[in-house]
Amino acid sequence: MNLVEDWIQRFGEDGISAIVSQSQMSTQGIIEALRAHDLVGKVLVASVDCPTPAGGDWLAEGATVVDVFYDYEALVRGVYDTILSYENDGVALPESIAISPLAVTIDNAADFQ
User: Fold this and answer.
1) In terms of DSSP H, where are the helices of the chain?
2) Which is the most buried residue in 20, 26, 58, 85, by most CB within 10 A?
3) CB 75, CB 101: distance < 8 Å
């Protein structure tokens, strides 16, 4: 929140067009700072991993425009299935197991609440 307040003071209310957040806590501070300056919806905010509890609300009110969601349950399932394939079928273990992030927008936010 303090960082965004500093940016607004330094660049002015017209000087910021978008902010990318790294966590739900950061997003909450960003939104509160923007609210204090009546900039919600005027500054585009992208968040990560916060479809619940407030992420859907933030999307609905226009405080955020996208939330990148990593489905950690899918990652756990992938790791588990890989281990089973290794133990049961002798399939070689891969160097890494990855999941694809999902873009949550106002159009699909209800699917994540």
Assistant:
1) 2-11, 24-36, 55-61, 72-89
2) 58
3) no
Cβ–Cβ < 8 Å for 93, 86: yes
pLDDT in tens, 29-48: 999 999 999 999 999 999 98
CA–CA separation, 43 and 19 (whole Å)? 7
Q: What global pTM score does this model have?
A: 0.77
DSSP character at residue 16: -
Domains of the chain, start order: 2-69+101-112 (3.40.50.2300)
Q: Which residue has the tokens 């000087």?
A: 15
